[in-house]
Structures are given as structure tokens and as C-alpha cells.
Amino acid sequence: MGRAYQNRKESMAKTSDMKAKIYSRYSREIYMCAKTGGTELTGNLTLASLIDRAKKEQVPAHVIDKAIDKAAGGGGEDFAVARYEGFGPGNTMVIVDCLTDNPNRTFGDVRTCFNKAKTKLGGQGSVSHMFDHSAIFSFAGEDEEAVLEVLMEADVDVSDIEVEDDKITVFAPNTEYAKVRQALKDAYEGIEFDVEEVQFVPQMLTKVEGEELELFDKFIDMLNFLDDVQNVFHNAEI
What we know:
By secondary structure, the chain is an alpha+beta fold. About 40% of the residues lie in helices and about 25% in strands. The protein contains seven helices and ten strands. The chain has helices spanning about 15-35, 45-55, 60-70, 105-115, 145-155, 175-185, 210-225, and strands at about 80-90, 90-100, 120, 130-140, 160-165, 165-175, 195-200, 205, 230-235, 235. The strands form three sheets. It has a four-stranded antiparallel beta sheet with strand order 3-1-2-9. A hairpin with a 3-residue loop joins β1 (about 80-90) and β2 (about 90-100). α1 (about 15-35) packs antiparallel against α2 (about 45-55). Mean pLDDT is about 90; it is low at about 10-15.
């Protein structure tokens, strides 16, 4: 796996506008997660994890509570998951995950970003086969063998474990997310995750330099500013 998962550049500056954008993304995701899986954290571990991540991103409690209350009340918007794939500047591969209440609008907005970057939006599966859809957990530690033993005892399918700079990173298939999280929490009381999320991890990286790098950064910024975009994954080596 390498450290390729960190290659997803955090290009959204922490300005007030972009903070509002981050809050909006979490609000949508929490709402959908609570609506589909229930609002009780003990019965919806995905929601519990999502709220933990939102708090780490300093999303205000009232934003989280409002999204949960909205889901508990029923009705409201119906957002659907939409995923777009294509080729970015420098022949990079890009996956764009969205939550949308209007797929036609979202498709048009994403396509416009690709067109402005003089790149090509592809069909479903055009680039995702070159990524691993992985659950990723990173936390303080040094004993990877002990962690592997814990996960094996919990019957978790582990793809890889890395240790670097006193940090352990566990990679597993995305379907194992809840099992990995619970196994680690059960084994290590008070464990704090630096990373706990599902990402598309590129199997190979493409180096981007010069003018193509400048265009690539603008392209990613355009995608990140779209209201419906939740995450952008790519294989660019910056």
C-alpha cells in the first residue's frame, strides 16, 4: 500500500468559507448515515465513527445535532450517492464521490470541472479498478505484530499494516471498516485514531510537475468547491 493514501491532497484552506464547506459536507453525510442506519450511536457504529471524525475537524456540535434531529424527524432531503471517474491533468486518475439531491445538476457541475481542465470524464469503472477501496486506521504504536494478532483473532481481513514514525497504519477492505474499528477499540482502551476512514488508495502514482501541476491544483480546487462533492481521490504524486 505504501503511504499512497496520504497523497490525497488537503487543498481546502481553513478559511471561514472553507470551514463552512467542511461543515456542510459532514452535515449531509451525518444526516444520510443517521437516516439509513438509525440515530442511536450504539446501534449505528458508522454514525459514531463519522461523528468522531466531525469533532476532530472541529465541526460545531449544533451542526451535528441538527443533522441527527433532521434524520430522526423523517422527511427532509433525499440525497443519493454519485461517483464519477476520469482522467485529470498529467494523465492522472481521479475519483469524485458526491452526495446529491439532483444527479443531473451534479453530473453537469463535475463535467464542467473536467472540461475547464481540458481533461476527460470517463465511465463507471474507467479508473476505479486502479485503486483499492480501503478502510484505513492510523494510531500511535510500534508493535505491528501485536496489532495483527488482535485483528486476526477478531477474524478481520487485513490487507496491510505499516509502522512509521511511531504510527501504525492498518489497511483493510472497505467492507471490514466496522470490524477493524471495533476490534481495535476493544483491544486498546482509549485508543485515538489519527485516521479512521474509507478511501480509494491508488495502486500506482503518477508524478505531476510544472504547468500540469498548476492546472491539477486548480482542477482539484474546482471540484472541492462544488456543494455536492464529498471527497476527491487521485493518484497524483505531488
